[in-house]
Amino acid sequence: MTSSDALERARQSFSSRAWSDAYDALAAADKQASLSAGDLERLAIAAFLVGQLPHSVNAWARAHREFLQSGDPVRAARSAFWVAFVLLDLRDVAAANGWVARAQRLLDAGAHDCVERGYLLLPAALRHAASGDPAGALARFRQATEIGERFGDPDLVALARQGEARALLWMGKIPDGTALLDEVMVAVTTGEVSPLVTGTVYCSVIEACQEIYDLQRAHTWTTALTRWAESQPGLITYRGQCLVYRAAILQVRGAWPAALDAVKRAQEWFARIPADPATGSAFYRQGDLHRLRGEFTQAEEAYLSASQWGRRLEPGLALLRLSQGKHDVAAASIRRAVDETRDRLARSELLPAYVDIMLAVDDLAAARLAADELAQIASALDAPLLHAQAAHAAGAVLLCEGVAQAALAALRRAWAAWQEIEAPYEGARTRVLIALACRELGDEETARIELDAARWSFSQLGAAPDVARVEALSRTHPTAPTAGLTAREVEVLRLVAEGKTNRAIAEDLFISEKTVARHISNIFTKLDLSSRAAATAYAYEHGIVSPST
């Protein structure tokens, strides 16, 4: 086969979107004789799509030089933009900015009115977004959209419109943002944009849906991305991200083994892409799943791997520490994370865990403030999952404040929302709190039914720590409050009478030692007692425990 025949076959592979074959053939042809600028563009695109990002940068840079030498500064500017595009994927911001500046200089020098000016607005828009200026980002994205429409460039229009949509979401304009996301996806799913842009827009839109807790849209577009990726022979880029998105949805829906399988397969795909930062998301998701299953050593290893890839570890690592009984460590971690996070969407990811941890360390005031903030965010975003989280947090705080009836109402709302979302784990967590609220109200039978239902759900999921907690709660059968004691205080009194230390009681009830000490102080005050021995005697005399206990 002649070199020209080999090159023609490489072009055919590219046209048929057989990316691995196209990359191998173009790279081989390039070794025999330097490729033309057009073929270097093809090599750069194929290299990107098979995960060879440094090779893609090199090919785009060579195409840039070829266009300059042939006297085509506009095409050279476009190649420079794509160099910057890939460098941003590699998190090399300084080098990307340099290439954008070079492209801008070329266009300004010739006063070119061209679509490439629209492409060069995209990095500027991203800089506005990164600096916390979504309005500035929106203005740049809209300028880029107008240029794309004027020149009839569907790739630029798709990239710019999804940027507009995300900026609107960051500004809290959720209906407008989601409507624009749906419009963008029409162009993507009908094949109007190039493969290079298709995968990028898919991933951005799915991330946006996850940010606003729109699980249904995230599921719809993740399924579509999966189909698209599987239809591209040899495609490697985007396969790992697709599996991580899928794992997130599977986790919420309670399919934890399938979710673990997805993240492990994602890691295998990421291993084929040098230095892909998205690898950290796969390890973080794996850490979450191991934590929920009680596999704490494996969870810690996964979180540490995520950290090595630059992934923030909150709230996952803080929740792991809470599950390990390291309440002070968990509290310090989650407090720092919340204090240094200003973005509303990012805070909403942290606040549910913050409430749980603050309640565990008996910082009721902080938990109340966080629950109120979460409710405000849920109201603004109007996302079912956030409404469920906010109702759960409100119920948990009210329960600790001793307002059982109001807590029960909030928790019932949360339970209904979790059912609608099809989130069995979170639903079971809420049912545990419903049981505790019923105990506070003296309804032990309903409490037992709720605990039994929660235990069954946790067992089905493989949530070992939660099964243990429910079993510990089920071992006690508090009667109606005695002498003004709450149901939780009766539980604590029973365990004191069994001779358990404050630490052992804290472990049994999944609360902090500080909280146990507060409950014991309240018990002594309400019953006019002065020692644990006296409290033990009282418990036996009043049937809170029996000699056979």
TrEMBL record:
Species whose genome carries this gene: Sphaerobacter thermophilus (strain ATCC 49802 / DSM 20745 / KCCM 41009 / NCIMB 13125 / S 6022)
SMART domains referenced in this protein's UniProt entry, alphabetically: HTH_LUXR (SM00421)
UniProt keyword Cytoplasm, yes or no: no
UniProt key word Lipid biosynthesis: no
Assigned keywords, A-Z: DNA-binding, Transcription, Transcription regulation
Gene Ontology BP, a term: regulation of DNA-templated transcription
Superkingdom of this protein's organism: Bacteria
Residue ranges annotated for the HTH luxR-type domain, each copy included: 478-543
UniProt name for this protein: Transcriptional regulator, LuxR family
Gene3D superfamilies with a match to the protein in the record: Tetratricopeptide repeat domain, Winged helix-like DNA-binding domain superfamily/Winged helix DNA-binding domain
GO-annotated molecular function: DNA binding
